[in-house]
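Session log. Operator J.P. requested a structure for one protein chain; no other inputs attached. Running the standard single-chain path with token output.
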Amino acid sequence: MTDHALQLLRQDRRLAELAAFPFDFDLDRAVHGHVEEVRLASGEALETVAGDDTGGTYFVCSDGSVLYADSEGAAGIIGSSVDETLELIIGLPGWRGYTHLSPDDSEQEILACITETEDQIREHYGIDEERAELRAALGFPERSPIELVGSLHAALLRTEPDFVLLNANEGCAYDRIGPAGPPLWEPVLAAGRADLARLREGDPTSWHEIAENPVRRRITLRAAQFDRAEGDLELLRHLLRHEAQSSMTDELRLAAVLVGLRGDTGDLPLLLEVRETDFDTALGLSGMPGPSASADELRQWARGLDESMFGTDPSDEPVSTWTDLARDQGMTDLARVTLIRELDNIFMDQSRLRRPEAPHTLATAPLIGLAQDFEELGELPQALRAQRLYAALQETAWDRASAWRTLARLEREAGRLSPASDSLAAVREALATPGDDSLRHWQQVNLGGFIAEEHYRLTLALADAGGREETRALLTAADGILGELSENVANGVRELAERTAARVREVN
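Structure written below.
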């Protein structure tokens, strides 16, 4: 559809006033923008076209879709164009109360909900004559409420992953308006399920292509994890042999478990051969029973790993399993949005990080994992969010110094040089007043070299940016740290130190 109707509203004041009241699509509110600065997680452009009297805003996305954001932090796609959105708003002036409805609901239920809402509206002002006039002027046909609810439902389902709205300053995602889409594992496993079906057909070409492709192989093994057919043993052996080419992976362990669960002692030579592929596989599969193990011992080993690490319910898998596989398949936006919501959940409830066995302490490793995942996706603002929270939660001086140093690196790479300077100041504070003995040997280990290196790299960035006074101050701090390092550690930084000093002299 085109946005012909939007142009008519912009050209005809009478029509624009009708759209604003009683249908609450007010073009004049567009000049005020949204209640806060926002952006799409995908980075695509947004254009504000209208607002409503609740503080909500209508945005047009780069593909023409209309994203509605309310003032309470929720957003969703409600039409594929402004024209389609106007048809919806005019036909269903109470549409915000129908986002829970779907085509699966009965017509009676849908019509009862709409009738109740519109009767309440009519108690205060008219909508019927106004609706007929605006529809006729804009060239809209009279569509049934059932059809419009179906269109709204379909539009809302398109919100993720391409149209997730973020607070531009904090980086947190808006809640989703309307129905949730399928769980992440469904689209991630789709290709693996298809490949598993091909393997079961026995086509030699498929067996070769799937087994030789690391990504397809991993996803197929995950599909087999949740669809454990009796006749799969030979294809599992085939995938196990090939997965060993990738050294120690979760999927290699999974393949060994799926084979071992059959309790066929004839598979022990294969399993032991895979275990001895390299040092990592020997370590990762170290608990595997020996060559003289019984069928029960083999099954017991496999069952123990299965219960502790795998299982048959995809919803029990860590979210990182699915985001990693999504990213490997090129589903970057899907992985990004899932990770953002995972980080938001931690920000909203840090008790998620509490250790079950020690509830007064926090397991902050998930934040490190999120920061690394975001960095690999090129999503530095989100990586900074995760790393900043991680740094703030560290208890020992060593962990604080290391975390703030990493934060400074990410800030520098994101072009945030002043915050990076502040982060390095926090590192120096941890070195100067540690409060514990965890840093007593920092001068003799790699951490000291990493800290000095980051000081010099940020000094170079500041010199290139023209900040003379800040550059000289940071160079002095960097030289001071270098002077405290042991000879071996300092030697790894000297070339960078000399290059930085030369650059600072040029600038000054």
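Operator note: DSSP finds 24 helices and nine strands in the chain.
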